[in-house]
Design a protein that fits this description.
The protein has a single domain, classed as Rossmann fold (3-Layer(aba) Sandwich), CATH 3.40.50. It has eight helices and seven strands; from the N terminus they run ααβαβαββαβααβαβ.
Length: 189
């Protein structure tokens, strides 16, 4: 699903139950781990931007960014791996179901490090097995160890790993597409 219009429509077509889950369960859990002004990297249709007002979005999909701004959110189009923000601008960066779409994430993770304030937080979420299988655009499959191996050397220290919707579960991993692994990192200088 590499076509931007097709992916935009896919995001807009998610169920009401999924929207309710994100608003009542997922976003409060994620927001509790974010500090200060947050960059939602890969903001999609801007649900997190609307939920957490001190959040700015960036996405490679111009149609998604237009939609976000029509909802009153602040969002920008991203070109390549360059983030259009000053160094140290954000207290947190959220990459929710983004990293698995990128074959070579090192340059982008270095950009994330650049735009984070000293000791800023990076929260990365990746899909479990069922979610991985549901999107043909996924390029790299991550587990907890792989997240640390890829993100850590780019200037981050692992703080916490948790799973959604509630806990670590092999059954949910295999049977629920919303099941995700999250890793919270702290920027190190």
């Amino acid at each position: 699903m590499t076509d931007h219009n097709e992916y935009f429509e896919y995001l807009r077509g998610r169920s009401r139950l999924g929207a309710l889950y994100r608003r009542l369960c997922l976003y409060p859990r994620l927001s509790a781990r974010l500090e200060g002004t947050t960059l939602d990297l890969g903001c999609g249709i801007g649900d997190m931007l609307v939920f957490r007002r001190d959040t700015i979005g960036v996405d490679i999909n111009s149609r998604s960014v237009e939609y976000c701004t029509s909802r009153g959110a602040e969002a920008y189009v991203m070109q390549g791996d360059a983030l259009p923000f000053a160094s140290g601008r954000f207290g947190s960066v959220l990459m929710d179901n983004v990293l698995e779409h990128i074959e070579q994430p090192v340059a982008l993770l270095r950009e994330v490090h650049r735009v984070l304030a000293s000791r800023g937080r990076l929260l990365v979420g990746v899909p479990g097995s069922r979610g991985w299988d549901s999107d043909p655009d996924h390029k790299v499959r991550y587990d907890e160890a792989m997240l640390s191996k890829v993100v850590g050397p780019q200037g981050f220290r692992l703080v916490e790993v948790f799973h959604t919707p509630l806990l670590r579960s092999r059954w949910l991993d295999r049977n629920m597409s919303q099941y995700c692994i999250y890793a919270l990192f702290r920027r190190i200088d």
